[in-house]
Amino acid sequence: MNNLVVAPIVIPLITGAVLIFSPRRLSFQRWVSVASCLIGLVVNIALMHRVWNQGIQPFYAGNLPAPFGITFVADLMSAAFVTVTSVTALAVLFFSIYSLDEQVEQSYYYAAFQFLLVGVNGSFLTGDIFNLFVFFEVMLLASYLLISLGGRRLQMQETLKYALINNVASSFFLLAVAGLYRTYGTLNMADLAQRISASDSNGWLSAIGIVFLVVFGVKAAMVPLHFWLPQPYFAGPTAIVAFFGGILTKVGVYTILRTFTLIFVEETAWTHGRVLLPLALLTMVVGIIGAIAQTDFKKVLAFHIVSQIGYMLMGIAFLTPLALAGTIIFVAHQMIVKSGLFLCAGAAERISGTTDLKEMSGLMTTHGGLAALFFLAALALVGVPPLSGFFGKLTLIRAGLEAQRFFSVALAITVGLGTLFSMIKIFRLSFWGEVRGERRLSRESVEYKRMMLPVGALVVLAVAMGLGAEHVLTYAQAAAEQILDRRAYVAAVLPGIGLDLGF
Amino acid sequence: MEVLAAIAVGIVVACSAYLMLTREIIRVILGSLLMGYGINLALFMAGGIKTGGPPVLTGDEVGAVTDPVPQALILTAIVIGLGVFALLLALGYRTYQETDTDDLEELVG
């Protein structure tokens, strides 16, 4: 009875299929999707609880044994990410109800959102490289639809570019899958890990690994493959961009985290140290320079996504238990805080009718609650103790010092200052100063209060993650040790097969 | 045979790269479709080619069977490709309607 493992995929799938038949019955659409997300959240917490108590949970579709059938695997890391995703999804859904135009909501918005969740949860839980491709495509198709809803000129042209770039990346994904299958004759991750440790590929494996890095790097917005990100994130509806900014790029990071700890570990000095680490540092620096140069609320945040991806990749490149624990905390923290910040941008846009920072100054005078929530979320992003960002960064930096990567650590701290600078810039330009520009929603309006609810929930969660850092760190360290213990992963997914192969 | 297939993959991908470097939306979309086809052929080759080897186990001779997994994989990839292509065409047409141009140079920024 491991059906709990596929429940995070099946629940949104059924909900999406139901919702697609009645796009115009809005209250039905809204409450069914919120109810589905709530059920999903409960199920995900139950899954996390079970993985914590009973170890890695595999699920074999149709009861076919592992290397032959379709396998789903829930370990501590994926269970945690799925849970944080459902929290974020719930907040974004609430925000969508009160911030989107009805016309957008009626254009299959809620159905597409559920299918997006299918893709994201599937990517987190799959135990098979080809199914990862399938779930990526589910996720991408839904994302093309969601980001183009509304159909303004800028949106259409940016969605087209976004779709084309991701389509080319998907072709490369298939190419890498072909290489992997030709070499090892399997696509099951556990089976791959076991066969790889049993043979020496003379560098061929690392070559395939780099193709995968390119594919996942496009999804994760790793420099120099980040160029597609800021424009569509600027053009799309802010509610949905909040989910994209929080979750979609992290799916790319998760896949790198999974494959570069389980499969592509043959020449870590080269793949992690010489390729991934410089790219990670470059990602941090390029992202923060972009963020400092922008004066648009959404564009600053979009460039920040790129910069923060750099920290996560740096943790993966160090490849120590502590660094991976830091990466896991950082990913979870970013999912919550980044979505919260984008929702703040969405609320500010709804209030002032613009996202240009200079056109909306004085928001603190008219809407103090939004200013306070943004301030807390921004501090959490920068990493001020005791908020969630601090412990993620602290763990990463401690891991860097232990691994004696002093240059990387120095750069990470410097980039943190840049983050602080650009957050202060947003606060100074749009929240401080004299009241300028129009105000479409008053502080007393019901719409404004309801929009603050999901933002407030995410900020409270960020604060709670910081205050309960001890528990978060314990969980993340257990998760990191679990993903580094490849032998246990293989033993859990392929019972009785991988044990005698001496690794 | 596999060498020939490899050359064919190269030609198809080269054509798709050429199409994707042009400026018209429809050509770029066709180019990305063609790239998918080229890569599907490469994926097909990942199982190897055997003369007269059906992908079904009929007798006891395991050696005479062609590996069916890559064929199942490209079937999936073709179906997904169809869906993505339909969506890309619709997206390209809507972009053309909104912007009154099919020249990508005019869609910068």
Report on the structure:
The complex is a heterodimer of chains A (503) and B (109). Chain A is mainly alpha-helical. Chain A has one domain. Helix content of chain A is 76%, strand content 2%. Chain A has helices spanning 7-19, 26-54, 76-99, 102-106, 109-125, 129-148, 153-184, 189-198, 204-220, 230-235, 238-262, 268-293, 297-318, 321-352, 363-366, 368-382, 388-402, 406-431, 446-467, 469-484, 486-493, and strands spanning 57-60, 71-74. Chain A has a two-stranded antiparallel ribbon. In chain A, helix 3 packs parallel to helix 14, helix 16 (368-382) packs parallel to helix 19 and helix 17 runs antiparallel to helix 18. The longest helix of chain A is centred in the middle third of the chain and has 32 residues, at 153-184. Chain B is built from three helices and no strands. Chain B has 109 residues and is mainly α. The model of chain B has no long low-confidence stretch (mean pLDDT 88). Chain B has a single domain (2-49, 69-107), classed as Helix Hairpins. In chain B, helix 1 packs antiparallel against helix 2 (25-45) and helix 2 runs antiparallel to helix 3 (69-99). The interface between A and B is medium-sized, with 34 and 34 residues.
Q: What is the overall silhouette of chain A?
A: globular
What kind of sheet is the major sheet of chain B?
none
The most extensive contact between chains is: A-B, 34 and 34 residues
Overall structural class of chain A, as computed from helix and strand content, comes to mainly alpha
% residues in beta strands of chain B: under 5%
Question: What are the main properties of this structure?
Answer:
heterodimer, A: 503 residues, mainly alpha, disordered C terminus, B: 109 residues, Helix Hairpins, 3 helices, 65% helix, elongated
Layout of helices and strands:
The complex is a heterodimer of chains A (503) and B (109).
Chain A: H1 7-19, H2 26-54, E1 57-60, E2 71-74, H3 76-99, H4 102-106, H5 109-125, H6 129-148, H7 153-184, H8 189-198, H9 204-220, H10 230-235, H11 238-262, H12 268-293, H13 297-318, H14 321-352, H15 363-366, H16 368-382, H17 388-402, H18 406-431, H19 446-467, H20 469-484, H21 486-493
Antiparallel strand pairs in A: 1-2
Helix pairs in contact in A: 1-2, 1-5, 2-3, 3-5, 3-11, 3-14, 3-19, 5-6, 6-7, 7-9, 8-21, 9-11, 11-13, 11-14, 12-13, 12-18, 13-14, 13-17, 13-18, 14-16, 14-17, 14-19, 14-20, 16-18, 16-19, 17-18, 17-19
Chain B: H1 2-20, H2 25-45, H3 69-99
Helix pairs in contact in B: 1-2, 2-3
